[in-house]
Amino acid sequence: MQWLNPNLRREFAGYTVTFVCASIAIGLTIAIIVFLGWKGLSIFFVHKISLANIFSVNWWPDRAAELGGPQVGVLTFMVGSIIASALAAVVSAPFGITVAVFMSNISPRLGQQVLQPVIELLAGIPSVVYGYIGLSILVPFVRENLGGTGFSLLAGAAVLSVMILPTVTSVSFDALRALPSHLKEAAYALGATRWQTVRMVLLPAAREGLLTGVVLALARAFGEALAVQMVIGNKREIPHSILDPIITLTSGITMDMGNTVQGSLWNDALWFMAAILLLISFLFIFAIRTIGKKVSSW
Amino acid sequence: MKAKTKDLLATGFFWLGAGFVILILALLLGYILVHGYQAIDLDFLTKAPKAIRAGGGIGPNIFNSFYLLFLSMALTVPVGLFGGIYLAEYARQNTFTNIIRLSIETLTSLPSIVVGLFGLLIFVTKFGLGYSLAAGALALTVINLPLMVRITEETLRTVPHSWREASLSLGATRWQTTYRVVLPCALPGLITGIIIAAGRVFGEAAALLFTAGITTPHLNFSQVNLLHPTSPWNPFRPGETLAVHIWKINSEALIPDIRRVADGSAAVLVLVLLIFNMLARWIARRFARRLTSV
Amino acid sequence: MRRKSWMIALAAALVVVMAVAAGCGAGNPPSRQAALSGKIIVVGSTAMQPFVEEAATAFYEKNPDVQITVQGGGSGTGLSQVSQGACNIGNSDIFAEEKESIDSSQLVDHKVVVQAFAVVANPGVGVDSLSKKQLQDIFTGKITNWKQVGGKDQKIFLVNRAKGSGTRSTFRKYVMDGIEEAKGDAEQDSSGAVHKIVSETDGAVSYMAIAYLNDKVKTIKIDGAAPTEADIAGGRYPFWSYGHMYTKGQPNSVVKAFIDYVLSDEVQQGLVKEMYYFPVNGIQVER
User: Does ipTM surpass 0.85 in this model?
Assistant: First the structure.
């Protein structure tokens, strides 16, 4: 008889639908992780490459057997990815949070009418366009004013930071906007200036949302391929300065994937790079979240 | 320093920051539009692209971009929304769900080229969809779903618990609370999430290279049979979107008017994005007003 | 009320999708008429892609019932896909035997064009022609300044192609004689990006298909020979390769018709020349 109650039926329906959708999302996540893991690990099982070998800087996947055989060391790519993404996040995060604070507290009207569309537009510009503009404007600029060839870690990090800025800003803004107004009111009532309120009350309170923004932005930076590929030079060497060219995991994968054959050593090395990328991403995100929790428990 | 001075300095600093961001966008947009606006005319917007001769247009590409947006959003939004609701409202908060959450977040960093290859192996080959808009939509869903789930979950978490408690204490069921109280409150954040995902779809190229393809067959808009290969609405045909076209022109094009087509396409894409964003925001505002009576 | 309409709309959409999926299987009956009809999927080399796409458009105008889709993806992808039977034709810049992990025993080679490539440099370097040995030394990093080979005093900016690309394989085989190139100062895959870098960076040197040459980059002759039909056919110019269309086993009638069309005089003397390729029958040198 209880089932005739429409509310209970809807409750059950709601629960089922959301559960199914969550399962799809989780299932997809697990499927991809398993797929990448299987493909990535085949470099060890099928091709018998050792750990020392793969984490070296020797990348000669097509070297003939007489010269020592193919080498697939991915360390150079890893270093490039980590440095470029970390640099971009370090630059973008403060910027994004600054803009988010502006939009939520300093001038909400300007924020909603001007900055929000601006941010969404920036988010929609395709990475190929960013890459092309970087190639046309940023690279010659770096070359003429700062030295080096222009194809550099600096150019890559700059392009990345502009690309991930919208993510940081949007998510931070939502986090700040959702704060209950009584926090701000209480601070003002105690005589705090706006800056004191923001710094000591609002930002700490929105901490988790702000961190999510940074995390999602970092993840995006790690995964960016087309734009970065055009401006970093793709020299397979660990950079010594910010003006040196670098190569990232994504760039390496993008350039070579189409030319390799499924199942070959080269191809599996590329899949391994993809798996490593995911792993590095995971570690960074985990680190940020853990540090965030530690900070919040003070 | 007195607190008031600090406050003034900080305010100035914030204005600078916001101004700088607006400046960047203005420069970017200005560059794109200035270089591209000359190419935009009715011909350009409706004709099909040419492989080696001058005079190609981007008509089918614009259509493909929108249609693919519709297809992938139809998959991403419901699944992502409901999935996020489950994680935020119904799931227990323990280590297991935390790991799931971390994994989903990590997945947002999946390089789109990897998703494209995953799509090639699974959707195009194994599922037998071939190079098609359907395969492209599925690949885009793989990219956007983690993002949608995370943003939904995060937005729902920001709704104060007291609202839920109040609703439950009035006798509403969990689902009623979620649907009638929590969701409307979280709506602005959700709309932001959807718009970000949509923007990503418009700008995505790498994932579609291997799934939706880089060419479009002849499209016959008067074709009634939805499944005919020349029907524009057939989701099982390949279709090159605007972003993919820009990539193709900048990489391997042999047409004599590369700059015209590439810059024009970029300008059209940005303009389309602008209109789409404004429209979406306007619709969202109307919707939110009705739902929340605010 | 609103909730119900949402759910109904969602359910309706699902039903439509499923119906379409079900109908998909029966969607394309190959009709046996006098005119040619069917579907051809071509995947592979990005270098050959514009050419095959244009040929497909011309073929479609003669045979409107044949749907040809031409995708890129690279020579490696083309060979993989055609081996797996996932596409009808795989375009490749190199012989299938040269790609490891491809079982070429089942693949049938159809050479359709001769692609010529050229070494290009920034117009300011002041050099017209280089010997093969000089080129090898430049690309292995032994020579680092243009003045060492008779040009201006400019540092050489070496731009390599992506390691797996067919273009690079051809370069390695026929210009480098198999010697491994140095790491280079930059690496790009797309011809468009390489062209831009070479035309704008002082001292830059790289190589690309001759279809991309224009006055923004300087073509460097190899041992005095230029990438013309005469020099290639005469064996003086080494930097060229065949464009292959591979099929798994012998092609069916529709695919065969398309390949025959590409090999026909209309295309070989018309489109091929228009796109700066050379007809495949004109080359006497064996490869």
Answer: no
